[in-house]
Amino acid sequence: MQCPKCHAPMHTYNRNGVQIEQCSGCRGIFLDYGELEALTRLESQWTQAAPPAPPGAPQAYPAAPAWGAPQHGHHGGHHGHHKRGFGHMLFSS
Amino acid sequence: MEPARGCIARHQEARSPGTPPGKSYDPGAADDMGGAVSQTAAQLATALRRARRDATAEVTVLADRPDGTVVRCGHIVAKAHPPGTDPAELAVRLGVAAHPRCAGILLPPVDGMAALPDGRQVTLWPYGEPVAPDAPDAAPWAEAGKLLARLHSVPIAELPGPLPAMRGPAKAARAIARLRAAALPDSVATRAVLRAWAGLPGWARGVDRMDRGVDRMDRLDRVGRPDHRDRADRVEGQDRADRLEGREHGDRVDPREGDGVGFGGEDNRLCHGDLHLGQLIRHRATDWRLIDIDDLGLGDPAWDLARPAAWYAAGLLAAEDWERFLGAYRAAGGSAAGEGDPWPRLDVPARALTVQTAALALAKAAAAGRALDEAEEAMVEASVRIAHFMEAAG
């Protein structure tokens, strides 16, 4: 398939099950019927599953040891929620 | 007197739940206090008044525990160090805190040393505002990381000496000894804590490196067995012998020795030895300083990062706080966490501190006849995972 704009060849990529064609010349993207909706749907699912990190926060969870708590690597309500009763431990040997 | 209490009560060390807030000590009202203030605190208050040449000055008790009593009078704080503190070692540590190379890192003492009638060593310090315990979200994690990075880069050769060993591993050993002495009924928790402890390399358990080879065989022989009582007796026996001879575990560490099992001492640095948020105070309006030199000395600088690391690994410390601490440490040139994944360097000391915290929690809860709180439970669970992981890894 050739790019309708610059006529360079287009390459097919698979993004989360959605086929998209991208032009090797102008980097333009061609979507088949329904593919834009599919992408939008995927995007909203992603947002619901993992709320965006606050600005400045790193994308990935920092590394933890093999014996670390099982919640490592999972998302969900972690920000700003220390375990209750943790305060005193921060101040003791 | 009253308005000062709120902030004084939060000072420095007395932080366990149920610890009474700062108490004003008035010698004329000593009887009314009904033994609420220890004899050490009373003697310390008298010594501080004498040092300030004011026999009636108001003195506030900031911490009053067997291992450390702190009283405040105006802008001066007096600390009675734990019984058995070696005066020569304390003098060196005090000299380090006062040294220009540690300016801006460690709080410098304001005066020389003294001793209480019972022989306990006393040091004097400027008062500083502590971290607010009711606002852990506002804790100065970045400042803590930065201060540690600077501490770890202090040129040791320029400091007073002989610099004693950092006492982190010795304190971990003492926590285990306390758990064993509590003689709790056999449980998953205590068994896991003791197994996790037995799986640590000798240096992290404060074991003399001279008998390290023997110790390792001993450990391999015992890993996975529920009862390590004779091992405990040996450690405690060693502890007693060391105290009699006025030294601590690890003092005889040979810095040239290293066998790849863990920290071989090849990169000894000046370490704080007991970092937590109670060890930071605001010296002036904005400048944070590290306090408490009791465990300061030469050792593996990773130990100082390992308590926050252990809290993070146990799921207690938020990832953002952990990253702020570690990021600031690295940005300030701290090298104890290596580059990239910090866990190859932090794993052993973080395991030791996890086990130490769990052991103390079990012993203290049993002594008080209470259940573990949520945070203590998390540290015990981490110890159980360490023990499982250790057995799985052989």
TrEMBL record, chain A:
Domain of life: Bacteria
Identification of the protein by name: Transcription factor zinc-finger domain-containing protein
Stretches for region Disordered: 45-93
Stretches with biased composition (Basic residues): 72-86
InterPro entries recorded: TF_Znf
Domain Transcription factor zinc-finger: 2-40
Biased composition (Low complexity): 58-71
UniProtKB/TrEMBL annotation, chain B:
Organism superkingdom: Bacteria
Composition-biased stretches (Basic and acidic residues): 223-259
GO MF term set: transferase activity
Protein name: Aminoglycoside phosphotransferase
Span list, region Disordered: 1-34, 223-265
UniProt KW keywords: Transferase
